[in-house]
């Protein structure tokens, strides 16, 4: 049995990674201040340290009890639009959070760290799908903050021997197939849950931003990766860190338009998705699809939920069973 610290483990991708670790019998500790995450998302048998990554006492408590085999770092600010309104906060907080966790890992003789990163590092890509050889050029403070984190980890490896994996991906979607966890953000900005909520009458009609892109149906095209498959990728890179640090782009390799998502939600749920058409948002590229060819070749990873319908179905099932999200679980308790 290994021992792992998951920062941001009460959040969306983090909680699903905790489930993946527990499913293979690992000992897990979660460090999360619950500002975005949910206590109910942390499964039984997992110790939750309620605190910020920059808090020395919280870090000391999290790292107490024995040496960790690795740290999986998800705790970060992650909204591109929000970063455009408050750039200095994003760059300062994301770097300071990562630096505090990495420093504590080194201090406690943990030499492996996996960071949840983003394909936003590439800004407007030169070609699709986006591979690791493309030029880095963030066009948002969020993307820039993650690039700063990668550069900080380069120095941590060079000076302290901290090996790291950076997984750069776009749109996480879906929910645990067994219904143990799902997506519950406030505010919610992701297309799949917004479309589902519109269909269920839990939110106002969905707004479609832009119908005049140079795509087959005029709407933006994005890559959607099931959250359980993302969790699996985080675990698969761990053995590689025994020898070297790695960076991987992570995607299904297939792009789906906004209209594709709407039609899929309607087909899966059997309900219409009320929606309105609006202008493009400034800075939104027409197509963003990430390659995972290198990750597949070097780790054997492949998505179990490659079809958009399969991704949407798990998201629909969880949301239909939890119309109030994790708040419903709190009230039931």
Automatic annotation (TrEMBL):
InterPro entries (UniProt xref): Epimerase_deHydtase, NAD(P)-bd_dom_sf, UDP_G4E
Q: Does the keyword Electron transport apply?
A: no
Under which pathway is this protein filed?
Carbohydrate metabolism; galactose metabolism
In the record, what terms sit under GO molecular function? Answer: UDP-glucose 4-epimerase activity
**Domain annotation NAD-dependent epimerase/dehydratase: ranges:** 5-251
Cofactor(s) essential for the protein: NAD(+)
Q: Which UniProt keywords apply?
A: Carbohydrate metabolism, Isomerase, NAD
Coiled-coil segments on the chain, per record: none
- EC annotation? 5.1.3.2
- Give me the reactions it catalyses: UDP-alpha-D-glucose = UDP-alpha-D-galactose
Q: How does it assemble?
A: Homodimer.
Q: What is this protein called?
A: UDP-glucose 4-epimerase
- What is the protein's species of origin? Falsiroseomonas frigidaquae
